[in-house]
Design goal:
The protein has nine helices and 13 strands. The protein is α/β, with parallel strands linked by helices.
């Protein structure tokens, strides 16, 4: 089957200090996967408003396939403030379009031919989008090469233990950062264990193919049964880190789908995400040397 990759969940406007930028982790992921020559689609909803129309126009201009429905809710926005290190803080509006993604026959058909999907916890804060994500995951093909990536992306208070446990059971790759790992360790009841041991516990408990742990300037890890890869974070002039993690996930998944080793995929993902940190917004155009997986 030809590789087809989907990012499902929120698409929105990041309202940054310098102006609004298109964002949303699943849409960022889908965009970056498409830069590596793999068929990729963003699945979400926007409002029947000017902000929604602008999102659709931008996705079209980026040649990104989209299954983005227009619904009777406002297009999502996030107020983003950056600290002195360029790290974002988010104020996410509620009751918006991407909380209401319908499961349509077109989505069911897309799921049936999807090789890899990336989903998070944020779009599951509402029952409608949560059920759509569950249906999509259930309607995907089964088999060794099918990847279901849960990029946890804990935001504000928009998650709970049940949603996280259900998502962990449905995924086979977990992407998590060090702060999120501390949070869920407290939630799941093993707080006094070091980060690596917590990763091994999660890998075994949920039967994961891989667990990706990013630790900001302290590097990143990829755990697979019996092995761990560590790569240091390159030193770059950071403009902002918005979307860097999504580009990491996209580059890693694209590399794995193209037959690269975990080691090579990990190094490439680090290189891509480091570049994204040197640009404004979540969807900068990658230079040619980073588009060859």
């Amino acid at each position: 089957m030809k590789n087809s990759v989907v990012g499902i969940g929120e698409v929105l406007w990041d309202m940054l200090p310098e102006g609004k930028k298109l964002g949303g982790a699943p849409a960022n992921f889908a965009y970056h996967v498409s830069r590596f020559g793999i068929d990729s689609s963003a699945v979400s909803s926007v409002g029947k408003d000017a902000l929604g129309a602008e999102i659709l126009e931008i996705l079209k201009s980026k040649n990104l396939d989209r299954y983005v429905t227009e619904v009777d809710y406002p297009t999502g926005t996030v107020q983003v403030t950056l600290d002195d290190a360029g790290v974002p803080c988010y104020e996410i509006k509620e009751g918006v379009a991407w909380d209401n993604i319908p499961y349509t026959p077109a989505l069911k058909e897309l799921a049936s031919r999807t090789t890899a999907v990336c989903f998070g916890s944020l779009a599951q804060r509402s029952s409608i989008s949560r059920e759509t994500i569950k249906h999509f995951l259930d309607d995907m093909p089964s088999g060794e090469g099918i990847l279901k990536i849960f990029d946890m992306n804990l935001r504000q208070n928009f998650y709970d233990k049940d949603i996280l446990c259900e998502s962990l059971k449905r995924c086979n790759i977990l992407k998590i950062n060090d702060e999120e790992l501390v949070t869920i360790s407290r939630m799941f009841g093993y707080p006094g264990i070091d980060l690596e041991d917590k990763c091994w516990i999660l890998l075994a408990k949920y039967g994961l193919k891989m667990l990706i742990l990013t630790c900001g300037v302290n590097g990143s890890y990829v755990f697979t049964p019996g092995n761990v890869s560590f790569v240091e974070t390159p030193k770059v002039d950071v403009v902002d880190t918005v979307g860097a993690g999504d580009s990491f996930t996209a580059a890693f998944v694209a590399s794995i789908l193209k037959g690269k080793s975990v080691y090579d995929a990990h190094h490439f993902a680090v290189e891509v995400s480091a570049f994204v940190c040197t640009r404004n917004g979540a969807m900068p155009e990658l230079p040619d040397y980073l588009r060859i997986v």
